[in-house]
Design a protein that fits this description.
With 167 residues, the chain is of the alpha/beta class. It has one domain (10-165): Rossmann fold (3-Layer(aba) Sandwich), CATH 3.40.50. The chain has six helices and seven strands; from the N terminus they run αβαβαβαβαβαββ. Bound molecules: S-adenosylmethionine.
């Protein structure tokens, strides 16, 4: 599929893929599917670890395009797309996750994390996109993860925050 400017970069996609592989993550959550460009990188890694992905997207048309793109990549069987309000969906989630990619509504990053805190396995890795380009909107998230967990900002592709839930 063709990459749009607001999707993650290919470099970030490869980093996410590698992180999933080295952590042997099997249970993966994505918040903010878009058209599924980032989901394809997650799913390629999940195929190798024997994992599955749940991805959440509020826009119906985006969710439909993501499904089409995943089908074209022959990765749709590894991915469950949940279309709807992510905070509502996350509140009712009972699965535990090894790896989370956050790329939804920037102002809600901290809300997402607090809502899924109960669902994160020890040593869960969280990657969050746009932490430099949208620094003001995600500042509360950055303060929280840097204070409570092992967390660092990677200065490429609009900023990626990598956090390890080490307690
Ligand atoms: C930057 S795009 C995602 C791009 C995708 N992750 C990629 O890199 O290929 C952000 C997406 O977040 C979605 N979004 C907006 N509010 C959201 C929310 N509350 N929860 C989840 N996704 C949300 C938007 O509809 C949009 O599709």
């Amino acid at each position: 599929m063709k990459r749009k400017p607001y999707f993650i970069s290919e470099e970030t996609g490869k980093l996410l893929e590698r992180l999933i592989l080295i952590t042997s993550s099997r249970s993966i959550l994505e918040i903010g599917t878009g058209d599924g460009y980032s989901t394809i990188f997650l799913a390629k890694a999940a195929k190798k670890t024997g994992g599955k992905i749940i991805t959440i997207e509020p826009e119906k048309e985006s969710a439909q395009r993501a499904l089409k793109n995943l089908k074209q990549a022959r990765l749709n069987k590894l991915v469950e797309i949940k279309q709807g309000n992510s905070l509502e969906i996350l509140k009712t989630m009972d699965k535990k996750f090894d790896f989370v990619f956050i790329d939804g509504m920037k102002r809600d990053y901290l809300n997402y994390l607090k809502t899924i805190r109960k669902n994160l396995n020890k040593n869960c890795v969280i990657a969050a996109h746009n932490v430099i380009s949208h620094k003001e909107k995600v500042q509360d998230y950055l303060n929280f993860v840097k204070k409570n967990f092992c967390s660092c900002t990677l200065p490429f592709d609009r900023g990626i925050e990598i956090t390890i839930i080490n307690r």
